Amino acid sequence: MKKDIILAGVGGQGILTIATILGDAVIKEDLNLKQAEVHGMSQRGGAVQSHVRISDEKIHSDLIHHSTADIILSLEPMESLRYLPYLKEDGWLITNTQSFVNIPNYPQEAELLEEISKIKNSLAFDAVKIAKELGSIKATNIVMLGTTSKFIGLPYKTLKESIKSVFATKGDKIVKLNLNALEAGKKQMK
Amino acid sequence: MDKLLLLGDEAVGQGALDAGLSGAFGYPGTPSTEIIEYIQENEDAMKRKIHFSWSANEKTSMEEAMGLSYAGKRALVTMKHVGLNVAADAYVNSAITGANGGIIVAVADDPSMHSSQNEQDSRFYGNFAQLPVMEPCDQQEAYDMPREAFALSEKYKVPVMLRLTTRLAHSRAGIIRKEVIPENEMHRPDDPNQFMLLPAFARENYKDLLEKQSQFIAESEESKYNVFHNGDDKGMGIIACGLGYNYLMENVQGSDLDYPILKIGQYPLPRKQIEKITSECDSVLVIEEGMPLLEEKLRGYLDNCLNVKGRLDGTLPRYGELNPQIVASALGLSPKPVKDIPKTVKGRPPELCKGCPHRDTFVTLNKAMEKYGKGHVFSDIGCYTLGFLPPFNAINSCVCMGASVSMAVGAAEAGFYPSVAVIGDSTFGHSGMTGLLDAVNKESNVVIMILDNNTVAMTGMQDSAVEGSIEKICAGLGVEKEHIRVFKPLKPKHDENVKIIEEELEYSGVSVIIPRRECIHLRRKRKK
Ligand SMILES: Cc1ncc(C[n+]2csc(CCOP(=O)(O)OP(=O)(O)O)c2C)c(N)n1
Ligand code: SF4
Fold first, then answer.
1. Phi then psi for B186, rounded to 5 degrees?
2. Is the entire prediction scored with pTM above 0.80?
3. Which end of chain A is more exposed for a tag (fewer CB within 10 A), N or C?
4. How far apart are CA A117 and CA B122, in angstroms?
5. Which of B288, B290, B321 lies closest to B298, judged by CA?
6. Which domains, from first to last, does chain A contain?
7. Which ligand 2 atom minimizes the distance to the CA of B351?
8. Which of A33, A43, A67 is facing B174, going by the closest CB pair?
9. Is B303 helix (H, G, I), strand (E, B) or coil?
């Protein structure tokens, strides 16, 4: 088993929380993980990404090789396209569609959706709306994780356990919200 | 033993803690910051009363570590690569004094300059100071190396550098912990004059250091971090350092490449293994994450002995960090088809947060500077450097920490008016204070703006060394009290704040203006 996943977003959107949950689940499953993340300058509202590599064999590189990623999981539509060189031919691009506009030349939404639809395996939907309905837009990242859960090579049950451990200090309400978000996200993937 | 999931930086912290650490010293800097942050949050460190608070700058950190070492204890110093320039006086001389308790100097380099002004390679400092350097290629080595580094440091009584690079520093993987080594008892150096570098002693110590060089090489030849993998295809041998080794193995795994490979993780370079690979192979490919240190040595000035490939002949790019693709192409592997980034995708540079106090400060400063035109504001390094970008376009320089103040002084001495410096509170404490002393002594006509957001924001909200004492420091350095002005950078106060800056611009002499409002992320961070 080997899965290479690119997490994409804008500084502050919560991709590192997704990475933390995946890391926790990997430890629970006793698999190997390498997860490279961006700290520093770009965290101030810039484009950020994390390379997550999960395998039952030794993982050498902290970075994913071009054209080999199984999944691009993005919290922002334009950011989902930035990492296309990493995606393998039949890899999945899964993205939230609500844009984060903090640059003057941000492209038209229709243009972005058109580019996304050109990818063989892609799924784009409004995860912010789903998270909002569940109680907080902060759970958007976990909705997206839920949608991807089928492809990441980790048992769904373990992901749930990891959400419980990662959010444990925040109280039962937050744990429940995120478990619901995971479930709602999962339903998006038919 | 425990398995932990740690960033490379955190692994160094845990590794040092488990290897008898008594004190960690450092100044924040991406990508090194998480080493000390990890120790600060570690319960054992707390229980053991290990020193772990931030220092004013990298030089004081290094010297404090030398003091702890004098007392017989094991010390860790952390900094980013450019921090070693600041600490260089202490570091290079620490090779002559040597260590008593073990000293590890953990320096994190930033090839490709993700968050830095340059991509200097700290291994060159190790080479220059003639001290051993260790370079982990993964998180487990980052955890293990402090153990051997402390042992090596105490065996030869010299500091040992641990060189990290961004991708390892900020990448997480599982590590297996080892048993915890107890801390050293306090004990002074056996030779009471060890740390006395009067020329007569320094000459002796230096001879000693030169004599140790062959022993350092012998240590490298025996080191478990320098590994020779045999291969049948002698058409090429590959020497790979640090992360270069990972990218190599990523490509070798599952391929039919069968070249001899020498992995390097400890310096000075292991002579025996290098002799072996260069003599048995027709050519050598050198893969280094950083500048071509080893490659230059192999080529020599005339470059007429060996068939060497690497960064200097274009087999690998001359600059920037490596990745699996770059190394694949250096190995002559044909690339898979790659999807392009669609043209609709635009760059998204970092920006000042919405609600950031620096935003208001720059709007205010721009208004006050309007009548003087552009090009008068020297600045420095921190979140506020983003004030260079639109819509502010408020600053004109960013060189090295503290340079804003001293450059403003220098320009003022040329008669340049107005000469303004914009510096953050932590940067001021790091190395702006000395420039301000110059300004006072030279009676320069400058306006120094110290942007006090009460934290080191750029690197993730560490404590600022000058918290609560900026006015006192400025007054103590000799700035006149009526020209130390404080304002709160907020929209409703815009007009009165502009007036304060205008008044000080008109004053002929040293003025300090302190826009003071907390970074908006500080409360959240401190609550955690
Ligand atoms: C010699 C050196 N050490 C460390 C750094 C990393 N660094 C960049 S800015 C900065 C501090 C910024 O703090 P402050 O001046 O308070 O500004 P703020 O980011 O809070 O606005 C640090 C530590 C560096 N660039 N150079
Ligand atoms: S982190 Fe703080 S100081 Fe830095 S840009 Fe954001 S609000 Fe401003």
1. -65, 135
2. yes
3. C
4. 46
5. B288
6. 2-188 (3.40.920.10)
7. 5
8. A33
9. coil
